[in-house]
Design goal:
The protein has 438 residues and is of the alpha/beta class. It has one domain: Alpha-Beta Barrel (TIM Barrel). It contains 13 helices and 11 strands. The strands form 2 sheets. The protein has a 9-stranded parallel beta sheet with strand order 7-6-5-2-1-11-10-9-8. β6, α7 (190-208) and β7 (214-215) form a beta-alpha-beta unit. α12 runs parallel beside α13. The longest helix has 37 residues, at 309-345. The two termini are 27 Å apart. The model is unreliable at 421-438 (pLDDT under 50).
Length: 438
């Protein structure tokens, strides 16, 4: 049975993803977990959201006592958010996970347990064994295998007396974007097509741990496909990345098209001097497997690695006026759609990522005057709809430069925490495990 519910009325979330274990080398932002938690609390956070490596630890069969991690290879991705790992590191993965939960307890924080493994976590391993184990699982079995691994992980936390730190469990991050969607028909709506597998995965977790909160997690707010969200989730977890002007830049310069289509001459004014041709920018040959283990496109990696961040930001500012109203309306609409679905299913809303989108590491659009105001608008919407939890912004985490903007994070977390009582209480009755389908 679950412990007495100690969870906060509102979760103020900082997104530590897979960085909390791949960025533990000398001088890296998570070299000292206690320091990272102390900084989080100073900024007003009470919850971290992580990839807990469930498949690696409990589904891969690999020895993780000396897990070697490091950069993708050469200078590739060294100017990309989330990918700019500088120093190699070796961890005992299971002990490191327990260390994080113990540090969370020392600092009065909670953990949203998730997995990024079918998107990019394994790309940072020193060898492809983790990735090979992931891709060896037939696509139709992947959600169920993840559910079992998460249940095993919670067994470990129960045995260690750390399970009261778990806010809830997500079977996987952004389920419709990544290798969980492998094998689906090309014309299928992945949110709808994945529903039976994800619903059974949540049921499997509930069978092992009745009453524990479990969900799946969606990129965007899939407003056109809400019928595809499993009925048995305990939290509606969505990521309202509104893009808008950033989408326009991505389309203008082909950052999500085949790298051979990159418009080298037209893009020259947003690139740094000396940028090589896009087609030749890749990892060393011995690391090519890493490009299969991550979902980021070669063109986007090139565009972020070689962008002049000032010119990139200036393009966004120059064109923002064309998209400002649509971006604001989209943000409000997506929040309202999420709130409506959650109210109809008597579950809370959690916004574990979001706002503008994926910008180069040294770009400052998200924390600049426009982006900071979008952060304020977003947490105000989160307060308005009675969300249980929200980020300030996906970039507000120790692995990003925005972490240094302490004042903005304190302001936004205080704005959200000062909200009136949530529309949907996060403390809700335990679900009865659903019967297995015949």
């Amino acid at each position: 049975m679950p412990p007495d519910d100690p969870l906060p009325e509102r979760l103020t979330i900082t997104l530590w993803d897979f960085s909390w274990y791949v960025r533990t080398g000398p001088g890296e932002p998570f070299a000292d977990l206690d320091a990272a938690f102390a900084q989080a609390v100073e900024r007003g956070y009470n919850t971290v959201r992580i990839c807990a490596m469930p498949f690696l630890l409990f589904g891969s069969g690999l020895d993780t006592a000396a897990l070697a991690l490091g950069p993708l290879g050469g200078d590739f991705a060294q100017r990309m958010r989330w990918y700019d790992v500088k120093e190699p590191t070796t961890i005992d993965a299971r002990e490191h996970l327990l260390a994080l939960f113990r540090a969370a307890r020392r600092h009065g924080c909670f953990v949203i347990v998730s997995s990024w493994e079918y998107q990019q976590s394994s790309a940072f391993a020193a060898d492809p064994a983790w990735w090979d184990a992931l891709r060896a699982v037939p696509p139709a079995e992947r959600p169920g295998r993840l559910a079992a691994a998460h249940a095993d992980l919670l067994d470990l936390l129960v045995a260690e007396g750390l399970d009261d730190r778990v806010a809830f469990t997500e079977i996987h991050n952004e389920v419709q974007v990544g290798h969980l969607a492998d094998g689906l028909p090309t014309d299928a709506d992945p949110v709808v097509a994945l529903r039976p597998l994800l619903q059974e995965a949540v049921d499997e977790f509930h069978r092992r741990h009745p009453g524990r909160r479990c969900t799946v997690n969606y990129a965007r707010v899939p407003h056109e496909s809400m019928r595809g969200i499993p009925e048995n989730v305990d939290v509606l977890a969505v990521h309202p990345y509104i893009y808008g002007v950033l989408d326009a830049l991505i389309d203008e310069f082909g950052l999500r098209r085949p790298v051979a289509q990159f418009p080298q001459e037209r893009a020259a004014h947003i690139l740094r001097p000396g940028a090589p041709p896009a087609g030749g920018w890749t990892v060393p040959a011995e690391h090519r497997w890493r490009l299969d283990a991550t979902i980021v496109s070669a063109a986007e990696a090139y565009g972020h690695d070689w962008a002049d961040p000032v010119a990139f930001d200036r393009w966004l500012y120059d064109h923002y006026g064309e998209h400002r109203i649509a971006m604001a309306e989209k943000l409000r609409f997506w929040f309202d759609v999420a709130a409506d679905w959650a109210a109809a299913h008597d579950v809370p809303v959690v916004l574990g990522e979001g706002w503008v989108g994926y910008t180069p590491l040294h770009g400052t659009f998200e924390e600049g005057p426009v982006g900071a105001e979008i952060c304020r608008q977003a947490v105000t919407h989160a307060r308005r709809i009675g969300a249980w939890g929200t980020v300030v912004c996906s970039n507000a985490a120790p692995q990003h430069p925005m972490w240094s903007d302490v004042a903005l994070q304190q302001e936004c977390n205080a704005l959200f925490s000062a909200a009136s009582a949530p529309r949907t209480s996060p403390v809700f009755p335990a679900r009865e495990p659903a019967p297995r389908s015949a």
